[in-house]
Amino acid sequence: MPIENVDTDQIIPARFLKATERKGFGDNLFRDWRYESDNTPKKDFVLNNPIYSGKILVGGKNFGSGSSREHAAWAIYDYGFRCVVSSFFADIFKNNSLNVGILPVTVSPEFLDKIFTAIEADPKTELVVDLPAQTITIAATGESESFDINSYKKHNLMNGYDDIDYLQAMKEEIKQFAEKSIY
Amino acid sequence: MSIKPATLFDKVWDSHVVRKIEDGPDVLFIDRHFIHEVTSPVAFLGMESRGLKVMFPEKTFATADHNTPTINQHLPVADPLSANQLKALETNTGKYGISHWGLGNPKNGIVHVVGPENGITLPGMTIVCGDSHTSTHGAFGAIAFGIGTSEVEMVLSSQCIMQPKPKKMRISVNGKLGKGILPKDVVLYIISQLTAAGATGYFVEFAGEAFENMSMEGRMTVCNMSIEMGARGGMIAPDETTFNYIKGREKAPKGEAWDKALAYWKTLKTDEGATFDKEYVFNASDIEPMITYGTNPGMGIGITKSIPTAEAAGGSKSSYEKSLQYMGFHEAEPMLGKKVDYVFIGSCTNGRIEDFRAFASIVKGRKKADHVTAWIVPGSHIVEQQIREEGILDILTEAGFQLRQPGCSACLAMNDDKVPAGKYAVSTSNRNFEGRQGPGSRTLLASPLVAAAAAVTGVVTDPRELIA
């Protein structure tokens, strides 16, 4: 999806945020880009083309901008993606992704261009994301780049822990801190 | 011993770090947590499945705003899904003892309007909410930013979130603003210069004469839209304007507590010699009334200008063309004179009393253009009350406008206030994304004055021509 500034209103429009449980959001992923107003699929949209498949979503610069809705990350996860690749992510979307178990991989603009060129030439292009090694590789050519992730988040993702577990384990420290607060 | 000069942001952030994790985020203590009906239900569900309790219920405040109707609020909410979310908020807040200003409560309104107007938002605080426009509260010299639902669960259950410390940016606007130039124009101008991703990874401090001379409501409009240039948040050092605004508000400190707080708040400014990772300086005299022509808030120009060519706009040509195609616009066309179908004044960006005063100043003695549908939506019941008391309602009614009831309304069109496909709306809200105001809707972001000028003429009009 070589489009820049893909905002979270496109990923999941506001009218689909009315659920009180986290389920079924994948059906409305990119709703208005994916379907006509009469719910027939738009043929030229990438998710409607069966030639593309996989668990890695590749997007243009400034992916996930706008609203803080975690529903955007839920929709991407629920659809089946586990990794999003772009040259630049919006901050809140990046945090939300990590919190729901999606790995955001930031690559250089040049490497992103290479990925798009490879996919355009062959929609079956295989991308390999190696979290322990922190690398992303275009399988056919072997071209590879390393990506950043802090060791705390990496440890969490690899072991299935989350921030809530961490914070619960330090509640006494938080309580003492709160006692000093003037608010 | 000399103390290293610090920025306003450093002072507030560093005083809230409970623990620093090596090669990881900071554990940040949160002073105020706002919640609403859309991004909180799954957080409460998560807490229940883990068997967690709300650690400090008195530090969280709930209001219903995102999907509430803006007419007939006394009747049951017709949409069952919206009604269900409102009910969930009521149940969850009741269960955990959290203050809840739901639909029908006299304090109800948009979360970023009611927080400040009731004195809940104070300088030096850390403030979060599951809403990206939480940056609004930065106007008070607070660190305020939007979070996701997992983080809402963290704050409810531990009063902390885990955040890497952002980089620091200062944006100065020097000089005085011209006639008819509002804070909304200032922030749309800044975003047009930086682009919609120009401040991603940064926390912004707004400084300089233009902000020093601005009212608190104007500062809130500016900080509100910091997220639209990608910033984590924006803040302005508190000063006498801030203290005068807060003093006497319901939940503001009183008596001795006020004096103590005030002494602390006066220390909340960037020290001379403190450094930023990035600085921008602009001149107030370069800013005209602004309007957007594309599908992100960075795509804005002075209202008298023409739509830039793809080359002049920079960025990806195909994304730019897709955007103009969606809007039904072409390169090099002027914005003035373009037909407008809808006008929306309201939202957490421009839903406060000064915005309605500005709108009324142009509408007074004129009539709404026949083909324009206008939605006039106050940010809260308190604002609605002010509109009535100040005689603004009479001006609006005389000109053929109707006042609606408070809520987020057409800013994100979760309720019934949706702009139909293909129609053009001049909107005082914060986002012109595709379909933001309803599937297929086309949004032109602008100030309350530009919105008023469009509402009475029916086309994009320079408000300066209508100001006496």
TrEMBL record, chain B:
<keyword id="KW-0432">Leucine biosynthesis</keyword>
<comment type="similarity">
    <text>Belongs to the aconitase/IPM isomerase family. LeuC type 1 subfamily.</text>
</comment>
<keyword id="KW-0004">4Fe-4S</keyword>
<dbReference type="GO" id="GO:0051539">
    <property type="term" value="F:4 iron, 4 sulfur cluster binding"/>
</dbReference>
<dbReference type="GO" id="GO:0046872">
    <property type="term" value="F:metal ion binding"/>
</dbReference>
<dbReference type="Pfam" id="PF00330">
    <property type="entry name" value="Aconitase"/>
</dbReference>
<dbReference type="InterPro" id="IPR001030">
    <property type="entry name" value="Acoase/IPM_deHydtase_lsu_aba"/>
</dbReference>
<feature type="domain" description="Aconitase/3-isopropylmalate dehydratase large subunit alpha/beta/alpha">
    <location>
        <begin position="10"/>
        <end position="458"/>
    </location>
</feature>
<protein>
    <recommendedName>
        <fullName>3-isopropylmalate dehydratase large subunit</fullName>
        <ecNumber>4.2.1.33</ecNumber>
    </recommendedName>
</protein>
<dbReference type="InterPro" id="IPR033941">
    <property type="entry name" value="IPMI_cat"/>
</dbReference>
<feature type="binding site">
    <location>
        <position position="408"/>
    </location>
    <ligand>
        <name>[4Fe-4S] cluster</name>
    </ligand>
</feature>
<dbReference type="GO" id="GO:0003861">
    <property type="term" value="F:3-isopropylmalate dehydratase activity"/>
</dbReference>
<keyword id="KW-0456">Lyase</keyword>
<keyword id="KW-0479">Metal-binding</keyword>
<dbReference type="InterPro" id="IPR036008">
    <property type="entry name" value="Aconitase_4Fe-4S_dom"/>
</dbReference>
<comment type="function">
    <text>Catalyzes the isomerization between 2-isopropylmalate and 3-isopropylmalate, via the formation of 2-isopropylmaleate.</text>
</comment>
<dbReference type="InterPro" id="IPR050067">
    <property type="entry name" value="IPM_dehydratase_rel_enz"/>
</dbReference>
<feature type="binding site">
    <location>
        <position position="411"/>
    </location>
    <ligand>
        <name>[4Fe-4S] cluster</name>
    </ligand>
</feature>
<feature type="binding site">
    <location>
        <position position="348"/>
    </location>
    <ligand>
        <name>[4Fe-4S] cluster</name>
    </ligand>
</feature>
<keyword id="KW-0411">Iron-sulfur</keyword>
<dbReference type="GO" id="GO:0009098">
    <property type="term" value="P:L-leucine biosynthetic process"/>
</dbReference>
<dbReference type="InterPro" id="IPR015931">
    <property type="entry name" value="Acnase/IPM_dHydase_lsu_aba_1/3"/>
</dbReference>
<keyword id="KW-0408">Iron</keyword>
<keyword id="KW-0100">Branched-chain amino acid biosynthesis</keyword>
<comment type="subunit">
    <text>Heterodimer of LeuC and LeuD.</text>
</comment>
<keyword id="KW-0028">Amino-acid biosynthesis</keyword>
<comment type="pathway">
    <text>Amino-acid biosynthesis; L-leucine biosynthesis; L-leucine from 3-methyl-2-oxobutanoate: step 2/4.</text>
</comment>
<dbReference type="InterPro" id="IPR004430">
    <property type="entry name" value="3-IsopropMal_deHydase_lsu"/>
</dbReference>
<dbReference type="InterPro" id="IPR018136">
    <property type="entry name" value="Aconitase_4Fe-4S_BS"/>
</dbReference>
